[in-house]
Specification:
Blueprint lengths: L4 H26 L3 H17 L8 H53 L1
Helix pairs in contact: 1-2, 1-3
């Protein structure tokens, strides 16, 4: 069964929107602009969630969807590679803050 063109094009259009957002996320990650990556991540989630309301694709359009999904997943993998050092740095900072709080707590407890 073939879907009406408007339904099919809206599905592929939504995948194109998602691919565009993931491409912008990758550009922001490369620019070390993590606040923008997070903000775009919210748009990305909303766009993916909207796919649930759209009907299935025809066989011909599955090929186009596969190409878009490959691009989206490739961008995601690159973003994760760029984020890994930043996540490590944040983890180290949080660990240092926790140790400092423990030291402050220990000394403030003894001072009472």
């Amino acid at each position: 069964m073939t879907l009406p063109t408007s339904s099919t094009s809206s599905i592929l259009r939504q995948y194109e929107i998602i691919a565009g957002i993931s491409n912008r996320m990758l550009a922001e990650a490369r620019a070390d602009n993590w606040d923008a990556v997070v903000a775009l991540g919210e748009q990305y989630q909303d766009a993916v969630e909207s796919l649930r309301a759209i009907a299935a694709l025809s066989d011909e359009d599955r090929e186009a969807r596969r190409d878009l999904l490959t691009k989206i997943l490739d961008d995601d993998a690159k973003i994760r590679m760029l984020a890994t050092p930043e996540l490590g740095r944040l983890s180290m900072l949080l660990g240092n803050m926790k140790r400092q709080q423990s030291v402050l707590h220990a000394y403030s407890s003894n001072a009472v």
